[in-house]
């Protein structure tokens, strides 16, 4: 079996790279160690978590908001078994779709662990131990990442769990302790808070979602407090102990004050680490640096025919970032001149309200000394938000003080995940805040808040505030 390109890993980066390679005329293979394609994102990450987020949001709307809309129903109850089953059905439909795309694009799928024999030879070891060897001209490593455990509290997958287990629980936790107030912690914490769990979030830093603009973290904390979530920010976890029925978490604040929390489950969501186990990188002379595979500006490793993309290389661990890199490498191999603008890869938190950001944060602009101006507009001043009862949130626009070029778009509110694409588009074409402010926006829509924030940034003249 000889190929032009072989992709190791079938997550969003890997399967997109394989499809684009096939579209460009390369004979392509993809290697996947698990039974289903799609990687973390489709199987135990992005897709299943969004299914659970949507289900839990439907429940809380039925419980708390339907009556105000004039919809009278009996008191709703959570059928957790069905909720998890529906999530599984969503996952299956998506991974089956990836398998179909492999067939459609005539991509050979090899199931098993792929490891290098040399730079042009890969051994695939199936679950039953059977080995197959393939040869290839080019290789794209797209093996993704795994949840990072606390060094003193490894995942036992029973009470001390990662996001993977949190999506497969057999019961609704009575008290879920979440260590880490980033994207994963806040998404899964909000799922269980909506359906009846007491949720406590312990975060080492002083803000939630600390990689995003500071205003977003403050607004998200204010909003999710309404779900009953308790927060201990600026606390360092010192120990986690599972006695079989209960988990005890101890933490200290910066002033030395200690806290002790007891819950039936502890979700550790402090980040993810690149996954390169079993690749046999030593066979081709590639050494990882802090777990990552070093690559040049064209995502090529030190070995001239081996590339790496997605979570195993530097940059944000995002499915759509991996997809962009997969397309980039495929097109480079075909002699094209693609580009990836890493500044304009958006980040999203799928809580409700959603949070979405692209470009520079205000903190980054301050630290760089760049002169900027800020325009913001609250959802509560929008007719559309009042109609839908989604009043929490705001749009924040950062623009260059002299040129008015948009430098950052930060949104917390209903449909922020979809709205951020407009910010990416504007920034990709280097639009000014005035450019966006002068465009017609349909009324009534949430996108009017973007226009109003741009008006505020341009000349401090929002219309509806």
Major β-sheet profile: 7 strands, mixed
Which regions contain 5 or more consecutive residues with pLDDT less than 50?
none
End-to-end distance: 66 Å
Gyration radius from CA atoms, angstroms: 23 Å
CATH-derived topology of the largest domain: FAD/NAD(P)-binding domain
CATH class category of the largest domain: Alpha Beta
The global form is: globular
**Count of distinct structural domains:** 3
Approximately how much helix is present in the residues?
A: 25-40%
The SS-based structural class is alpha/beta
The share of residues in extended strands comes to: 25-35%
CATH homology superfamily of the largest domain:
FAD/NAD(P)-binding domain
Summed over residues and divided by their number, the pLDDT gives a mean of: 97
Output the number of helix runs: 13
What would you say this structure looks like, in words?
By secondary structure, the chain is α/β, with parallel strands linked by helices. It has three domains: 2-146 and 273-342, 3-Layer(bba) Sandwich (FAD/NAD(P)-binding domain); 160-270, 3-Layer(bba) Sandwich (FAD/NAD(P)-binding domain), CATH 3.50.50.60; 353-459, Enolase-like, domain 1 (2-Layer Sandwich), CATH 3.30.390. 32% of the residues lie in helices and 26% in strands. The chain has 13 helices and 22 strands. Strands 1, 2, 3, 4, 5, 6 and 17 form a seven-stranded mixed beta sheet that branches. Strand 10 (198-203), helix 7 and strand 11 (230-233) form a beta-alpha-beta unit. Helix 3 runs antiparallel to helix 4 and helix 3 packs parallel to helix 6. The mean pLDDT is 97.
């Amino acid at each position: 079996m000889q190929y032009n390109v072989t992709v190791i890993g079938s997550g969003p980066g890997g399967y997109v790279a394989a499809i684009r390679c096939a579209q460009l005329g390369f004979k392509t293979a993809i290697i996947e160690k698990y039974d289903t394609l799609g990687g973390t994102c489709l199987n135990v990450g992005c897709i299943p978590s969004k299914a659970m987020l949507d289900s839990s949001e439907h429940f809380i709307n039925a419980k708390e908001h339907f009556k105000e809309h004039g919809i009278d129903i009996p008191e709703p109850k959570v059928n957790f078994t069905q909720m998890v089953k529906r999530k599984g059905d969503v996952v299956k439909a998506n991974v089956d779709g990836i398998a179909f795309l492999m067939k459609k694009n005539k991509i050979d799928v090899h199931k098993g662990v792929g490891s290098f024999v040399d730079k042009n030879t890969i051994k695939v070891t199936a679950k039953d131990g059977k080995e197959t060897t393939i040869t290839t001209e080019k290789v794209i490593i797209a093996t993704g990442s795994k949840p990072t455990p606390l060094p003193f509290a490894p995942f036992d997958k029973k009470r001390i769990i990662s996001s993977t287990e949190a999506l497969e629980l057999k019961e609704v936790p009575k008290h879920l302790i979440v260590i880490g107030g980033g994207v994963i912690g806040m998404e899964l914490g909000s799922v269980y808070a909506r359906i009846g769990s007491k949720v406590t979030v312990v975060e080492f830093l002083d803000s939630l979602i600390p990689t995003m603009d500071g205003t977003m973290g403050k607004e998200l904390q204010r909003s999710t407090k309404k779900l009953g979530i308790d927060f201990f920010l600026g606390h360092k976890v010192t120990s986690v102990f599972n006695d079989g029925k209960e988990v005890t978490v101890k933490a200290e604040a910066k002033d030395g004050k200690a806290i002790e929390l007891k819950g039936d489950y502890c979700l550790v969501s402090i980040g993810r680490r690149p996954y390169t186990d079993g690749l046999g990188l030593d066979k081709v002379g590639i050494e990882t640096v802090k777990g990552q595979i070093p690559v040049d500006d064209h995502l090529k490793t030190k070995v001239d025919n081996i590339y790496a993309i997605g979570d195993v290389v530097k940059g944000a661990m995002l499915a759509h970032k991996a997809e962009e890199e997969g397309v980039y490498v495929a097109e480079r191999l075909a002699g094209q001149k693609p580009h990836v603008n890493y500044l304009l890869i958006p980040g999203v938190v799928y809580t409700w309200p959603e949070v979405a950001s692209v470009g520079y944060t205000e903190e980054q602009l301050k630290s760089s000394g760049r002169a900027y101006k800020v325009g913001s507009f609250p959802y509560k001043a929008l007719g559309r938000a009042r109609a839908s009862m989604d009043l929490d949130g705001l749009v924040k626009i950062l623009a260059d003080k002299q040129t008015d070029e948009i430098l950052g778009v930060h949104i917390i509110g209903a449909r922020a995940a979809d709205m951020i694409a407009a910010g990416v588009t504007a920034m990709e074409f280097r639009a000014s805040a005035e450019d966006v402010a002068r465009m017609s926006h349909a009324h009534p829509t949430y996108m009017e808040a973007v226009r109003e924030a741009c008006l505020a940034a341009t000349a401090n003249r929002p219309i509806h505030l």
